[in-house]
Amino acid sequence: MQVNKIVVWEAFDAADPMTRAAGRLYEQTLAADERIPWYWIEKSVESRTKTKPGKADGWTKHLLLAAPEDRADDPAGLAGYVYGALIPNFGGYLCYIGVADWARRLGVGTRLFDQFYRQMSVDSGELGAPLPFVIWESHRPAPAAPAAEWDIWAARTKLFDRAGGLWVEGVDFWSPNFASDDETGDPVPLQLFIKPMNESAGAFDADRLKQVVAGLHSEVYRNEPGSELFERTLPEGCQPRLQPAKLAGLAHKSGK
Predict the structure, then answer these.
(1) With a threshold of 0.70, does the pTM exceed it?
(2) What superfamily would CATH give domain 1-131?
(3) Contacts of 40-48 spanning 24+ positions with Cβ under 8 A
(4) Would you list the domain boundaries of the chain?
(5) Which of 34, 100, 137, 184 could form a disulfide with 190 if both were Cys (CB 3.0 to 4.6 A apart)?
(6) What is the per-residue pLDDT across 208-245, written as a single tens digit (0 to 9) for each?
């Protein structure tokens, strides 16, 4: 398929047809147990023009949309989205990213990652603070999942690799199940990926990685040491290390 140049812009109007198209794509590209309610994201879009980095709840949230430049007003032409935030005194947190089926293999995912990194750098610059990293999570299929699911996972980790992400091997990050209204559903194990920014990849040794993982639990999920999900994520003797992201897509073949 031939398309015009992909453009990326920020959503500021929750009622805009392109933002609503992002909501539909969000629900199509993420399992229910992995995603927060879309209206939470709509609320952050609505408040975006009223917030500055470090204000409100401390997070500076962004929903970025992508489309061919000649279809930027066409909901059917929405190629992808990315949603995330700068978390002061922690780093960039890329919450969700999705690409429409018709737009795969067009570089949309890489374009969204790159623009999100730039946005995080701008936000941290406005705060006068360094941006050590951008972190995100992704759900790896169960070992007995169909081959098609593992193929999708392998393709996803290759995208993460192209986007400069590194896999935090040795950690299953246990998060709440958002498909359950009271969060009593089975917790979801996620894999973590980091894009080093103002810190070098070599700075992320086991201790630094455990600090980052602990920070993700406390800053995002409000889980502190001693809580079930925190302790399950970082058991005694845990020694995480950075690996190329694409290796996460091969882990099931070795039984990891």
Answers:
(1) yes
(2) Gcn5-related N-acetyltransferase (GNAT) (3.40.630.30)
(3) 41/83, 42/14, 43/14, 45/11, 45/12, 45/13, 45/14, 45/19, 46/13, 46/14, 48/10, 48/11, 48/12
(4) 1-131, 132-256
(5) 137
(6) 999 999 999 999 999 999 999 999 999 999 999 999 99
